[in-house]
Amino acid sequence: MRLFDLDRWSETYESLSRNKARSFLTAFGIFWGIFMLIFLMGGGQGFQRLMSRTFEGAAQNSCYVFPGETTIAYKGMQSQRTWQLDINDVERLKKKVSRLETVTPIIQQWSKTFQYDSKKANGTMRGVRSDYINIENPKIGYGRFINETDIIQKRKVCVIGKRIKEELFPDIENPCGRYIKLDSIYYRIVGVSKSNTNVGGGGNTSETAFIPFTTMQEIYHLGDNISFLTFTVKKGYTVAETQDEVGDIIKEAHLIAPNDKQAVFLFNIELMFQMVESLFDGMSFLVWMIGIGTLISGAIGVSNIMMVTIRERTIEIGIRRAIGAKPSDIVRQIMAESIILTILAGISGIFFAVLLLNGVEMIVSRTGLDINFQISFTLALVASLALAILGGLAGMAPSLRALSIKPIDAIRNE
C-alpha cells in the first residue's frame, strides 16, 4: 500500500467509522494500556530520580553509629542510662577493625539560625573533618569543602547548603568570601554545596552548614564528646559483616552489656541502598506486567473486532476477489486498519499520560520538591514502535480469515 494513496486512506477511515462506538471501545483497551504503562513508568522514574538525589554523594559502603539508651544493667552501671560517643571511639575502631577504610567523628546541632545582614535562614550546623568527603561527598557549586588546614588551624570557615544560600543570598550568585553570623560568631563562607543528600539521620545537606570539627569543639566547649560517628569498609568487605564487631568494641569501651540491642544504633547505608534498589526493581517489574498485560488484552480486542468486521464484509471481500483483487491488497487493507487503530489509540494514551505527568509535576513542585516525572524520548519511541508491531500482530488473524473467503462462497451466503 502506497503511503500517500488517498483512496486507500479514505477506505480505511470509512471502514473504521462504520461502527464508531465499537471502534472506540476497542481502541480504548490499547489507549488505557499504554496510558497506564507510561504514567506508571514516568511516576516511578520520577521517584527514583528523587531518591537518587537524596542519596547523591553518599558512600554505599558506609554505616552511621549513634548512641542510644541502655536497657540492661551491666558492671555496676544502671539500665536506662544515656551515654555519649567520644573521639576515642574513632581511634579505637581504626586500631582494632582492619576492615574499616574511613572512620570519622561528627558533631551536629539542630535548629540553628544563620544570619547575613537582615536576612535569616534556619538549618543544621555540622562539625566535620576533611575525610568526611569519603562518607558523603557534597557536590560543590562554588568554592571548596573543609580541608585539613581548616582543621589544624581551627578556622572559622563554613560550607553552606544551597537552601541556606538561596535564603541568605537570593541576589548573589557566589557568596564565597562573605561572612555569616551564627551564635554571635562570624564564619567566612568558603564553599556552597549543591547536594540534596539526606541519609544517616544527619538531615538534608541543602539545609546544613559544615564547619571544621576542631572549630566546633573549641567554640562550644564539647571536649571529646561527639554526636555520632560514621565509617566505610574496605573493598571486598560488607558493612553487614563488620557492624557487629564495631558495636561490640564500642559497648566494651562504654560498659554496655554485649546483649543490649538498644544501646548502640547502627544505621547500615549499604543495606538501605540494597532495599531501595530492590523496591524499584519490583515496582518496575510490576508496572511492566500491568502495562503489557493491558496492551495484550487490548490487542486481542482489536483482533476480535477486526474478525467481526471481516464477517460483516464477506460480500465486499468476495466481490473484490472476483474482480481481480490480489490477496496482498486485501491483507494490506486489513493490516492497515488494525495498525492505524492501534497506533492512534496508543499515541493518544502516550499524549494524555505525559500531559497528566506534567500536571502532577507542576502541583508537586509547589510543595518545594524538585521531581521530574517526564519519560525519556527513548521510552516514547520504543512504545510507539511496539504499538505498530502490536497492531500488525492483531491484524494477522483477521487477514488470514479474509484470504480464506472465496468469491463463490460469499455470493452463496448472500
- N-to-C SSE series? HHEEHEEEHEHEEEHEEHEHHHHHH
The overall pLDDT average reads 84
Our count of helices gives: 13
Query: What is the count of distinct domains?
Result: 2
Secondary-structure class: alpha+beta
Q: Kindly, what is the distance between the CA atoms of the first and last residues, rounded to a whole number of angstroms?
A: 29 Å
Helical content stands at 40-55%
Shape: elongated
Number of beta-strand segments: 12
Describe it:
With 414 residues, the chain is α+β, with helices and mostly antiparallel strands. It folds into two domains: 6-55 and 274-412, no CATH class; 110-226, no CATH class. It is built from 13 helices and twelve strands. The strands form two sheets. Strands 1, 3, 4, 5, 6, 7, 8, 9, 11 and 12 form a ten-stranded mixed sheet that branches. A two-stranded antiparallel ribbon has the order 2-10. The radius of gyration is 33 Å and the shape is elongated. It starts with 5 loop residues before the first helix and ends with a helix. The mean pLDDT is 84. The chain crosses the membrane at residues 24-43, 286-310, 330-357, 377-397. Belongs to the ABC-4 integral membrane protein family. This is Efflux ABC transporter, permease protein. It comes from Alloprevotella tannerae ATCC 51259. Keywords: Cell membrane, Membrane, Transmembrane, Transmembrane helix.
